[in-house]
Amino acid sequence: MVIHDIVIIGGGLAGMRAAIEASRAGLDAAIVSKIYPVRSHSVAAQGGINAALKDTDSWENHAFDTVKGSDYLGDQDAIELLCKEAPFDIMELEKMGAIFSRDPEGRIAQRPFGGAGYPRTCYLADRTGHALLHVMYEQLVKHEVVLYDEWHVVKVVVEDGTARGVIALELSTGKLHRLHSKAVLIATGGYGRVFRTTTNALSSTGDGMGLALDAGAELMDMEFVQFHPTVLKRTGILMTEGCRGEGGYLLNSKGERFMSRYAPKVQELASRDVVSRAEQTEIEEGRGVDGCVLLDLRHLGADKINRKLPQIRSLAINFAGVDPVEKPIPVKPGAHYSMGGIRTDFDGATTVPGLYAAGECACVSVHGANRLGGNSLLEAIVFGRRAGIGVSNFSESNGLLPFPATALKEAAFEVADITKRDSGESPAALREEMAGVMEAHSGIFRDRTRLTDGLRKLRDIRERFKGVALTDRGDYYNNELLQVIELAQMLKISEAILLGAVEREESRGSHFRTDFPLRNDKDWMKHTLVSLKDGEMKLGYKAVTVTKFQPQERKY
Amino acid sequence: MVEVELRYAYYPGCASQEMTKEANETTRLVCQRLGIALHDMPKANCCGAGLLTDYDYQLYLALNARIFAEAEAMEMDIMTICSTCLMVMSTANRDLKADPKLLEKTNEILSTAGLRYNGTINVKQLLWVLAGDYGLDNLKKKVVKPLNWIKAAPFYGCHSLRPSDALGFDDPEKPWSLDAVIAALGGEAVQYKGKTKCCGFQVDLVAPETAEKMTAVRLLDGKEKGANAFVTPCPFCHINLDNYQGLAEKRVSQKISMPVFHLSQLVGLALGLTAEEMGLSRHLVSPEKILK
Amino acid sequence: MKIKFKIRRYNPVDTEASEPYIQAYMCEVPEGMTVLEALLKIADEQDPTLSFRKSCRSAICGSCAVSINGFSKLACNTQVIPEFKKAGEMLIEPLANHTPLKDLIVDFVPFWRKMEKVSPYLTPAEGESAPAVTPEDEERVDRSQRCIMCGCCNAECNSLAIDENFIAPAALAKAWRIVGDVREGNARRRLHRLSEEHGMWDCVRCVHCTQYCPKDVAPLKAIEELRSSAMKEGITDNPGAKHVEAMRDSVERFGRLDEAAMTFKTLGFLRSLGMIPFGLRMEKHGKLPRPHIFAQIEELDEVKKIYEESERRAKEEKRELASRKKGW
Ligand SMILES: Cc1cc2nc3c(=O)[nH]c(=O)nc-3n(C[C@H](O)[C@H](O)[C@H](O)COP(=O)(O)OP(=O)(O)OC[C@H]3O[C@@H](n4cnc5c(N)ncnc54)[C@H](O)[C@@H]3O)c2cc1C
Ligand code: SF4
Ligand code: SF4
Ligand code: FES
Question: Is C219 in the pocket of ligand 3 (CB under 6 A)?
Answer without folding.
Answer: yes
